[in-house]
Write a structure and sequence with these properties.
Oligomer: single chain
Shape: elongated
CATH superfamily of the largest domain: Glutamyl-tRNA reductase, N-terminal domain
Protein name: Glutamyl-tRNA reductase
Catalytic activity: (S)-4-amino-5-oxopentanoate + tRNA(Glu) + NADP(+) = L-glutamyl-tRNA(Glu) + NADPH + H(+)
CATH topology of the largest domain: Beta Polymerase, domain 2
Low-confidence stretches: none
Number of domains: 3
Mean pLDDT: 87
Subunit structure: Homodimer.
Helix content: 40-55%
Order of helices and strands: EHHEEHHEHHHHEHEHEEHEEHHH
Strand content: 5-15%
EC number: 1.2.1.70
GO molecular function: glutamyl-tRNA reductase activity
Strand order of the largest sheet: 7-6-5-8-9-10
Distance between the termini: 14 Å
Number of helices: 14
């Protein structure tokens, strides 16, 4: 029987050093998923890779989770697999995988509780899966359950109240080193305008920053966002040219050239400078932290400063978990009905074949759409009663009916 499984290495079990070794670019994620499909290790697969986690959700009838784990480590060129093994979590039952997926997608397992970015990251990951035709029935149902649950949490609880995300928390963290009242006189550079960089840029002005400059690998993307938010933009090729003129540098790009201490240069005045590295792998060389009057913050050092929001969200956790349990139960019920849906579909296909064959013998019905209308009406009537009986049955009775149906019509 095909099941939905998952493997995960995240901030819950692994530090930044370990996580960055398994970080996958979009191209790498696509290549890895295709590899699993070609090796017949997964019938459907989705990779979620963020600064805090690398996870693989997959459908298979016989591939154990540890095989997918080994394939991932091998794909990333990691030889010491035994060192990484304890850092992974495995979910091998469809219901357990769905339950975990919901907790992650809703932000229950994020470093910043209720992180708004994670649902968008799941949407992007699933879109990539669909773009390369690696989706499946279980995976599709799991993602639709996540999106529906996300709406329920938003509408039925206070878990989404306030603005709290990694980007927001990063800006809050800066105030530990530079008084917030001084933000308006500080110059900020945001490198990377993907989801994380965009989040930071949207909140920057509300925190009081007035001189904010954006840059991105795709210059047009930075220009578009800057125009939308009333900020400035510079070409990506020029991002290192004037680093010494920025009081705050927030880097949200990965797998690129690291900013070195030498490139940062020295500030003209006796000011403090704050560097925030939200990238995995790191995009600012750790040696920069040894420079005078510089503070370097990485992802693991960011904690939410929005205590009121945090308390409201914590108070709503029980409500969110109740919704998660309801949706997981619904998913489990859907799983039980899958054989039923399959048998009804096969029975209908069998009837359709018989009807088509018979209709071809009556040429007088081939004019217009009379034949198709007759076929559809007849099919609906033929399938209605057996489908109703199957839906009404449960447990052992349903299994007996399904086995009899499959054997009688030879549709299994």
């Amino acid at each position: 029987m095909t099941t939905l499984q998952a493997i995960s290495l995240s901030h819950e079990t692994a530090s930044l050093e370990w996580r960055q070794a398994l970080q996958l670019s979009k191209e790498e994620a696509a290549d890895f998923m295709v590899h699993l499909k070609e090796q017949k290790l997964a019938e459907a697969v989705m990779v979620v890779t963020t600064c805090n986690r690398t996870e693989v959700y997959f459908e298979s009838a016989g591939t154990p989770a540890d095989v997918i784990q080994d394939e991932l480590l091998q794909f990333k060129g990691i030889e010491n697999k035994n060192a990484f093994a304890p850092l992974f979590k495995h979910f091998t039952r469809s219901e357990d995988s769905l339950h975990y997926l919901l907790e992650v997608g809703l932000g229950l397992r994020s470093q910043v509780l209720g992180d708004r970015q994670i649902i968008g990251q799941f949407k992007d990951s699933y879109q990539l899966t669909k773009d390369i035709n690696l989706g499946g029935t279980l995976l599709h149902q799991a993602l639709q359950t996540l999106f529906r649950t996300h709406k329920r949490v938003h509408n039925e609880t206070s878990f989404r109240s306030g603005a709290s995300s990694v980007g927001y928390a990063a800006l809050e963290r800066i105030s530990d080193f530079i008084p917030r009242k001084e933000f308006s006189g500080k110059r900020m550079l945001i490198i990377g305008t993907g989801q994380m960089g965009t989040d930071v840029a949207k909140y920057a002005t509300s925190f009081g920053f007035r001189d904010v400059v954006l840059t991105n690998r795709t210059d047009e993307k930075a220009l578009t966002l800057a125009a939308k938010l009333g900020l400035q933009a510079i070409p990506f090729a020029e991002r290192f040219d004037a680093l010494a003129t920025y009081d705050v540098i927030i880097s949200c790009v990965s797998a690129g050239e690291q900013i070195t201490a030498a490139q940062l240069g020295a500030l003209q005045q006796e000011n403090k400078r704050v560097l925030v590295d939200l990238s995995v792998p790191l995009s600012i060389n750790p040696a920069a932290a040894q420079m005078p009057r510089i503070t370097l913050i990485n992802m693991d050092q960011i904690t939410s400063r929005t205590e009121a929001v945090k308390k409201a969200r914590e108070a709503s956790i029980s409500d969110v978990r109740h919704i998660v349990e309801e949706e997981t139960a619904g998913f489990a019920h859907w799983l039980q009905d899958l054989p039923l849906y399959h048998s009804i579909s096969e029975l209908k296909a069998f009837f359709a074949t018989v009807l088509e064959s018979e209709l071809q013998k009556h040429s007088n019905l081939q004019e217009g759409d009379a034949a198709s209308k007759l076929a559809k009406a007849t099919l609906d009537r033929l399938i209605r009663r057996p489908a109703g009986a199957l839906r009404a049955a449960d447990g052992t009775s349903r299994e007996v009916l399904l086995q009899s149906l499959n054997q009688l019509f030879q549709i299994a």
